[in-house]
Specification:
about 50 residues; single chain; mainly beta; elongated; 2 strands
Length: about 50
C-alpha cells in the first residue's frame, strides 16, 4: 500500500520587501509521521507555518 501525503509543499517562498524570510522550502509529510521545524530565532519557522 502506497503511503499518502497529507501535506506536500514545493518551493514555498516569502519576502518582506527585499528580505527573503523563506526561500524555496519543500517538504512532504506522510500519514502517521511526526514532523517538526527546528532552527534558531529568525530562521522562518513561524512564517513557514503561517503560510499554510
Amino acid at each position: 500500500m502506497k503511503e499518502e501525503n497529507i501535506i506536500s509543499v514545493k518551493e514555498l517562498s516569502k519576502n518582506f520587501g527585499k528580505v527573503k524570510a523563506v526561500d524555496k522550502v519543500s517538504f512532504e509529510v506522510k500519514k502517521g509521521e511526526i514532523f517538526a521545524f527546528l532552527g534558531p530565532n529568525g530562521a522562518g519557522k513561524s512564517t513557514t507555518l503561517s503560510m499554510f
